[in-house]
Amino acid sequence: MENTIENLLHEVKSFSAKTKQDLESFRLKYISKKGAIGELFENLKQIPADQKKQFGKILNELKQAAEAKFTELNDKLQSSSEEKTNIDLTLPPVPNKVGNLHPLTLTKNRIIEIFERLGFNVADGPEIEDDWHNFSALNFPDNHPAREMQDTFFIEKKNAEGGDVLLRTHTSNVQIRLLEKQKPPVRAIMPGRVYRNEAISARAHCFFHQVEGLYVDRNVSFADLKQTLFHFAKEMYGKDIKLRLRPSFFPFTEPSAEIDVTCLICKGEGCVVCKRSGWVEIAGAGMVHPNVLRNCGVDPEEFTGFAFGMGIERVTQLRYQVNDLRLYSENDIRFLRQFHTEGTA
Ligand code: PHE
Known about the structure:
The chain has eleven helices and ten strands. It is of the alpha+beta class. Strand 7 and strand 8 (about 255-260) form a beta hairpin. The longest helix has about 35 residues, at about 50-85. Phenylalanine binds next to strand 9 and strand 10.
């Protein structure tokens, strides 16, 4: 038995492994329970008691030598396979590029956030609209020149019910849809895409985005309108912003106003953006016309309301100083990549 052990010790020590398979056969042959060394341990039981101690000792030495060899070969194989891959494992990882939100979406989300805190819900409506919801119910009389204020894309002239089908020219259609199905109090903002038949340039586009606001309840006054928009402007553009209302006209509001804020670029001193006036227009607004309330089945003697509408592009332009409207829809990655927000890389 002593000889066998010595032979095995020699074999183990001189073993070399080129591949993982070599190493595995080494393990099976010597170290595993059914391997050669395991077998010798079994045989130890038959050895006379007085010799057991001596054999046990050299057998243990063999076992340890085999295990040490296994570890040594394993380490060697592992490090050589790392070398072969040619990868520098110490390099920092390349971060995954995740997308970011479109600047118009960022602005829309911010607007929603501000008005939600004032108790406004978010409402939605169709972009393909009928004449009633886009014009007639909003107090635009037939053939009234006010319809020409907005160059409309018509889809179908005179459909089955006798009305035109068109791409909505403003989000005011959602005012009507809301008031038709919900009794006041109604307090909502309505963001969405609108379409106008205009030549595309840096300052105009055939589609853009608006957020309209509507608040109808008992005793809603012009002061409420003014304060709501003032609060919005301060939240959006900063505490030092000033607000100015100019008389205006919309068929669906009376009285109507256009809302200006101090120019953010020149801080009111006058620059190209504000055409040297120190003010930029951000919204149209007014008290909901009694005819509009009546058209939706709401009694104007009992309820009053205000409405306002603003272009998301315009707000975004002031926020990020973008001066060409076309950039928003060109999908140029160099432009879009600049609008990182928290949560995006
Ligand atoms: N709908 C108007 C427009 O598109 C904006 C507006 C909305 C004005 C609500 C007053 C009240 O020009």
